[in-house]
Structure to design on (219 residues):
């Protein structure tokens, strides 16, 4: 009598088993929260939560605090929120070592100085609304037609100078510069998320990435 033996092997799926092409990102992969996957597609690394969340658009700037039960909050998100898969997309750009970043910062500083010199030479400070400009961007108020033409000329020249500003990586490793391309499912000034843990997990991943990358003083 012949007997046949069959060995059934069950393999659990590994989330993001492929090589991410950077030791820092490989280290980060090992620290991901439970329920997250990571994949690399060309020059992009995509972190994605397996469970979806609900995102609600609302202006949270100076919004009054109000209390609601967890059940009421969930109901509000189910009725008005948009279902999303929490996701973090990072683009890799090679050869962004400390030397290149230092050189780029020096070039950017020269451009910023040229913009300041242009602002001073064209008398923009006199046309600047100090209160409305306090948030960072110049808010220029013309007093007459001549001022209006001067402001338009300044903005045109300023935009030309700004094209020379080099976009620095958000983070850098000894091997790559890392640019955050998109964040889906995070709470900010204009979005709230349910459950809140989805948003916290994305910020946790970014904090882990920051800690693993080159410190600011070496970039």
């Amino acid at each position: 009598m012949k007997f046949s033996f069959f060995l059934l092997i069950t393999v659990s799926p590994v989330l993001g088993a492929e090589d991410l092409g950077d030791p820092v990102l490989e280290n980060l992969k090992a620290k991901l929260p439970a329920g997250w996957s990571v994949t690399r597609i060309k020059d992009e690394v995509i972190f994605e939560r397996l469970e979806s969340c609900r995102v609600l658009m609302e202006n949270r700037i100076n919004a009054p605090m109000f209390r609601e039960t967890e059940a009421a909050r969930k109901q509000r998100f189910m009725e008005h929120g948009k279902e999303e898969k929490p996701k973090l997309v990072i683009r890799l750009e090679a050869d962004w070592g400390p030397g290149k970043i230092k050189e780029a910062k020096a070039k950017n500083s020269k451009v910023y100085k040229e913009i300041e010199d242009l602002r001073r030479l064209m008398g923009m400070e006199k046309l600047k609304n100090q209160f409305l400009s306090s948030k960072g961007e110049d808010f220029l108020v013309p007093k007459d037609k001549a001022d209006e033409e001067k402001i338009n000329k300044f903005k045109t020249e300023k935009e030309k100078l700004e094209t020379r500003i080099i976009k620095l990586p958000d983070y850098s490793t000894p091997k790559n510069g890392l640019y955050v391309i998109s964040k889906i499912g995070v709470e900010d000034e204009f979005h709230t998320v349910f459950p809140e843990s989805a948003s916290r997990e994305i910020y946790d991943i970014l904090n882990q990435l920051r800690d693993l990358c080159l410190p600011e003083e070496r970039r």
